[in-house]
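2024-03-11 09:14:02 INFO receiving multi-entity request
2024-03-11 09:14:02 INFO entity count = two
2024-03-11 09:14:03 INFO echoing inputs for audit
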Amino acid sequence: MVLAKIRMFWLEYRRDRMAVFGLALVVFFAFIAILAPFITPYDPWSFVSQALSPPSQKNLFGTDKLGRDVFSRVIWGTRVSFIFGLGAATISGLIGIILGAIPAYYGGWLDDLLSRIYEFILVIPTIFLLILIIAMFGSSIYFSMAVVGLTMWPYLARIMRAQVLSLKSKAYVQASIGLGASGIRTLFKHIIPNGIQPVIANITIQIAYAILTEAGLSFLGLGDTTQVSWGQILYWGHLHIASAWWNTVFPGLAIALLALGFTLIGDGINNTLNPKMRESR
Amino acid sequence: MSIEIIVKANNLSKHYMIKKGIWSFLGGGKGFTIKAVDQINFEIMRGEIFGLAGESGSGKTTTGRMLALLEKPTYGSIIFEGTDLASLKGKELKHFRRKVQMIFQDPYESLDPRLKIYDSIYEALAIHSIGSSKQERTKIIKETLENVGLSPPEEFLNRYPHELSGGQRQRASIARAIVLKPKFIIADEPVSMIDTSVCAGILNLMMKLRSTMNVTYIFITHDLAIARYICDRLAIMYQGKIRELGHTEDVINKPLHPYTKILLSSVPIPDPGFKRQRIRIPGEWDIFYNQMGCKFHGRCPNANEKCTKEEPELREILPEHWVACHLYAF
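2024-03-11 09:21:47 INFO inference complete, emitting structure
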């Protein structure tokens, strides 16, 4: 049955050409990330050629100002971007689902308080908050991943909350309470599984957002300099954007394509799950 | 059958506060109260099917939800087997949940769409730790499905709700309710969304379960023909209050309250030659209109001066036949 459902989902999903394209992009980059050690011609840290040499047979994407192979660095960077995007979105998703669902289910002052908290987080300009926190506590990639996750969860919590409020009055939820099920059981067995789809669609879009944020932070010099990330390549290359375009164009393209891929998947899931959107397509 | 009261409602009320506008949002303003259920009293005897009938908005579903403890009464109390439900907590509450079950109106919504019939029923057993092993529970589930007419049970165990018809789903919900062997079932319009052709089957199943499992029912309905078919006693509700209460045959054959008479005159009779006296009443009730006196006086053909001033009490006019109407004041 689960298989049949996935099949149904896929049949509907694949009708959306852009969503299939997005999936293809993500799968492509996922393969690159997994196979990175086998397809990189050089160690991303070692100096292999003259500094800033243009793309050639030896260095497909040219070299940066220290003579490192940009092609190898972009490939290794895929890993960091994936880990960063998935990690931040997972943190955001877990917090968003729990803090969205539980207070909404029980209601009362806790619900009011949390709603105010996430409205408060939503009005803080994220990038300034990130810069402040990183300036104060350091720029380790896992640390900034957690911080990005911690700034994104209110978006998901709001969606989850709305879902819980609407599912709470469904007869099968009432029946579960009537059977004597505990609140947590009702919530995790009946409400969350039935209301999580739009949250999942938005988590996918948040992966893209996190990847873009990492690149942005690195570009501003707030990235983790011990990692080869796409943002780091941009950071090393942006001073030579006029004379050595390959330092910025290739990582930039990679960032744009992967973010686009996740965004298209998110939109595709949304459209597939929401019949109203489906009609207007 | 010895007469034993299983459920007793004392001045049971549910009021909803409605606040409007930014001022009341900020804590000011009085708002106003909607009395969904207003001080109703009734007793249900063990083993009977007690009907609760009325138009939509009369408060019958809210009453049912309060009896199932899905909604907290604003005032008044419910006594179940001698215990006040308001005092139940923890273990006792769980025990109460086991003894009292609810059947819902919409069979398309009352089963979790993600769970197989087996899992939906299994959950009830797991919550109350009935049956020691999975095999034992499976056996109980199969017996219950057989009992509600879903046989052979093997064919239904692994189906999802959307693979069943409305009638089958309602049978599955009944199975989920009776697997706990409850003493009291609140049936909230259990057949109103089911095809007429399978409706009688469900009603007969409920009556069969009453005799085999000794269940007591409160049967909420808007359909007087169904009420007449299944209920032993019937209460007619209008705007949150019980207007008439008595044995079903008495209420239907000798209605006392003008509202009951009107309600009965609107029941279609399957005889094209029959010329019936249809009482038409003006207007529709408006819940936002807090009128004085009897809530029905604006639409009542027999209303007099007293009706506009005083709310009538429910009184026993004939033996075991109660009515709330000034026309029968002595």
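2024-03-11 09:21:48 INFO post-check: DSSP finds eleven helices and twelve strands in chain B.
2024-03-11 09:21:48 INFO post-check: Chain B touches chain A at residues 68, 70, 93-94, 97-98, 100-102, 104-106, 109-114, 116, 123-124, 127-128, 160, 173, 176, 180 (CB under 8 Å).
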